[in-house]
Amino acid sequence: MDQDTPFGDDAMTLPDRIGRLPFLAWGVLLCLFKALLDALVFRFFGGHWSPLIYVHPVKAPLFQPDGHWGLWFSLWAVAVPFLYLGARLTLARLKDANLPAGFLALFFVPFANLLFFVLASTVPGRTPPDEEPPRFAAPRVGPMTAFWVASVSGAVLFLGVLGVSLGLLGAYGSGLFVGAPFLAGMVAARILVILSPGRIWIWSMLAAVTAGVLSMAVLVLLAQEGAVCIVMAAPLVLVLSVLGAMVGRRNWFRHPAGSAACVALLPLLLLLDVAAPEPPLRVVVSEVIVAAPPEVVWKQVVAFPELPPATEWIFRAGVAAPLRAEIQGEGVGAVRRCEFSTGAFVEPVTVWNPGHELSFGVTLQPDLLRELTLYPGPRPPHLDDYLRCRQGQFVLEALPDGHTRLVGRTWYQLRMGPQNYWGFWSEVFIHRIHLRVLRHVATLSEGAHG
Q: pLDDT > 70: what percent of the chain?
């Protein structure tokens, strides 16, 4: 039951229970007051305060002092009293909603605790103050409340791991894309079993899937990731969430060793991400047949004029589209510039064999993707060197009928895990970029050959 007032008879005493509306009101007021104090601290130390420090995992100064120790200590000094007040109010809200006190741990999950605040503000009160449940009785909540609590708890865990992986470790790896959805699905399913024991197994799967969908929706709503990245990650996240739910529903207490191993999977994967060696070079190969001899094709390979507007869905979705190429100089050491919709690749020539091979390195590359978001948001960290093109090559092979087999290759490094999963998507994009260039070169060459 919602309480009319957040405090008891003593106005200086924190409440034993608190209803939804008072909890929401006090939570918003405390957040605004803390934001004001943080802004004053930033101003005192000559820094720039932004609301992004509360919703962007990479921009959280509480976890990244970056040498500004005075600012860092001051922000923690401001944060500690609010953490205490927030924890006490959250415990009172959990008691009013008849939810286990262990859910308080979600309050301390970085980046994702705002989602938990929404959860705590919406779950209705269940137990009147004069009707305490037995000490070891299962919590009494409705089936939809149980489903909502389980789904949001899984999402909070997933987003919290994202905050740790990106904000503290700077890793887009298996800990984030394998361990986090698996553990989130496992926890969501187990919470649903605890709060609503009679639910059939399909509801556990749905709770796990909802946790994954909710996590990705939060990232889109906060403009943390674009639609293309979310679509790419969705199959992996949702499948692993369901697998985690299967484990969470069946083996959490029956096999403690197995459950402990599943829980230990996450920190192990995060540590492996941090300790991962330099990623290997990967290569994408594409080819077309050109109805023109190699000496004609060569002139279009070295430099080509403006391409027609990109109409393929992959470029309309934000993937960088090649526009034109120009070259300064001739032979080894010449510098080729390939302009894309997001900027220019700078490519010093390393092999110059007219009519046969043009190879080059890459000393500068633009963003490979322009994120599709609801509104301009912070720059996603994965745009910075998580996929780095290293070398490129065109090979021209003369065919007996006077045509040319034109082969394009790109060597790149991928700092995202699992490598095979993200390598698949990377090769899809790079292959489409290759074909756009190769087909344009073929069209120009065939037109010039007449």
A: 88
